[in-house]
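Reference record
================
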Amino acid sequence: MAERRATRNDVDREGRRAELFSFGLRTIVPFMGVIAALLISAVVLVILKADPIAAYGAMFRGAFGSINGLSQSLVKATPLLLVGLGVCIAFRASVINVGGEGQIIMGSLAGTWLALSFPSVPRALLVPACMAMGFIAGAFWGFIPGLLKARFKVNEILSTIMMNSIALQFMNFLLQGPMMDPEGIAAGTFLAQSARLPQNSWLARLIPQTQLHSGAYVALAFAILVYVFLWRTTIGYQIRSVGLNPRASRYAGINVPFNQMLSLTIAGGLSGLAGVIEVLGVHRRILEGLTGGYGFTGIVAALLGSLHPLGLVPASVLFGGLLVGANTMQRAVQVPAALINAILGLIVLFVSGSALLIHQLIKRRKIKAVAQAAAEEAKA
């Protein structure tokens, strides 16, 4: 009996060590990837005869050195957080949602249509209704590739990318036709944008003279809700189980295709919510370039946050600060705009590569642990 208890304690201790090792890797390695990308970018700055210290100082001051810079970083972080939360859910089910761009577009279109169609509805009803409509539209756009994955084994990466193109062309059709701003048509400008939304659909500004809006609170609340959903509910447990081992989950009676379809649907809904919040809080109309690449950069933010809903909160703020500070750095040290895109691209590359490195290190440690256990059993 004592030997069994000691063996069980050893197993529990080894399990806790494995969890701490995995958590440490997922926390430290992505940030090391960001630092490595910045160091390589510093070499490029030196080649271009620019001072890296001054450049990165300007980047930090532009992102976090003032109320306006900090608020703008939080504005950028809000859609990144929502899109990244959807990516976290999809990754936990062992599927990849690359359709954030299209889902943002569909969510923004649905929310804009509702706000323009019912301008006299009170703010307390119209704003939540627009958000719900955006979530439903994005969820529908994520449900389609989820259904194709569950029923026909269609690769979700290909289907979500194609759905992005469909959504983009659909938006272009609407903004150049049925949803084009009537005032622009009357003035002869014919800009590809919708009419301005009624004021009772606008999200409240948290700080005067800035674009920081109450949608940041909504994104933060959803980060907590997603954490509770994944780690405190039965459905969340099933999604995580599917991601860890689909075969064992299927053997345990878990419907693997359904959970993968569900995760893509929820991911699409969160991206759609990001789109409608961007319209209601920032632009207050839908226009070309609305997505800002959030559908793709949200994936990087999720990797930087170790694919954890709560870890994604600081990661989104950091990446939002990088997006804002990069523009300030360009003006401060007079470097080409292409260099800024290259720096952000390096960060994306290194953070994405860190996910593969983490996977390999964890796999190697598991193999080593199994070998040690087998050797101890043979010795006993």
